[in-house]
């Protein structure tokens, strides 16, 4: 009996992963936790034990994109990386890194470009944006560095028609492990040289 229940949970877990991947690909949601909760509700699975991990959803998302968006997705990713690289060059003095779905090659149709910056102060970034004549909105969001959670400034703006989010960290955090959650994995990131190589490699290139 226990084996039957375990098999059912595993089956539902796989179904939620596939449904969450479809939601992310088709609805432009980049938040794994939100996508899996929406998928679970649609499938009538409130049992939190059945929820898949982010790695399972990411694998399902890669399969979905390769199967159903084989042509447009690599082109979209390449274009978003070109936009990201231009933005990184504009913020080069703040030690920018690309992270998130655009770097991972999982960007949906409404994806934002996520950059991490490490200036001496948030005010420096805001003054730079004023010099560039760019409107922006600032808020505080929770981020995780090493074994600590902290609030960091996140600056949202429009960069050449693409939503751009700048997470502004302390310079000392540049050498720290920045994670998706306290218990989560380290979030991959890439500097200007790595992103340049991805752009030059063309559509379909993946970060090693």
Report what the structure shows.
- The structure is a single chain.
- This protein is α+β, with helices and mostly antiparallel strands.
- 46% of the residues lie in helices and 20% in strands.
Helix content, binned percent: 40-55%
Largest sheet: 7 strands, mixed
Work out the radius of gyration: 18 Å
**Overall spatial form:** globular
List descriptors.
about 210 residues; alpha+beta; seven-stranded mixed sheet; 7 helices; globular
Describe the protein's topology.
Blueprint: H1 2-27, H2 32-42, H3 54-68, H4 72-90, E1 97-99, H5 101-104, E2 113-117, H6 122-132, E3 136-145, E4 148-159, E5 162-168, E6 178-179, E7 189-190, H7 192-201
Parallel strand pairs: 2-5
Antiparallel strand pairs: 1-2, 1-7, 3-4, 3-6, 4-5
Question: What's the short story on this structure?
Answer:
The model has no long low-confidence stretch (mean pLDDT 87). The protein is built from 7 helices and 7 strands. By secondary structure, it is of the alpha+beta class.
């Amino acid at each position: 009996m226990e084996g039957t229940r375990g098999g059912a949970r595993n089956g539902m877990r796989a179904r939620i992963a596939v449904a969450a991947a479809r939601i992310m690909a088709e609805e432009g949601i980049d938040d794994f936790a939100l996508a899996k909760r929406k998928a679970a509700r649609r499938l009538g699975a409130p049992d939190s034990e059945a929820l898949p991990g982010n790695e399972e959803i990411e694998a399902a998302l890669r399969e979905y994109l390769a199967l159903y968006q084989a042509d447009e997705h690599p082109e979209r990713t390449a274009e978003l990386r070109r936009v990201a690289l231009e933005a990184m060059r504009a913020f080069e003095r703040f030690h920018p890194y690309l992270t998130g779905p655009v770097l991972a090659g999982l960007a949906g149709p409404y994806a934002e470009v996520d950059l991490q910056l490490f200036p001496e102060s948030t005010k420096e970034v805001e003054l730079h944006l004023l010099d560039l004549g760019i409107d922006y909105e600032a808020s505080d969001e929770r981020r995780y560095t090493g074994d600590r959670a902290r609030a960091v400034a996140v600056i949202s703006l429009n960069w050449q028609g693409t939503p751009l989010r700048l997470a502004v960290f302390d310079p000392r955090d540049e050498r720290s492990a920045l994670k998706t959650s306290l218990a989560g994995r380290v979030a991959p990131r890439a500097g200007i040289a790595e992103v340049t190589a991805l752009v030059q490699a063309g559509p379909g290139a993946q970060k090693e």
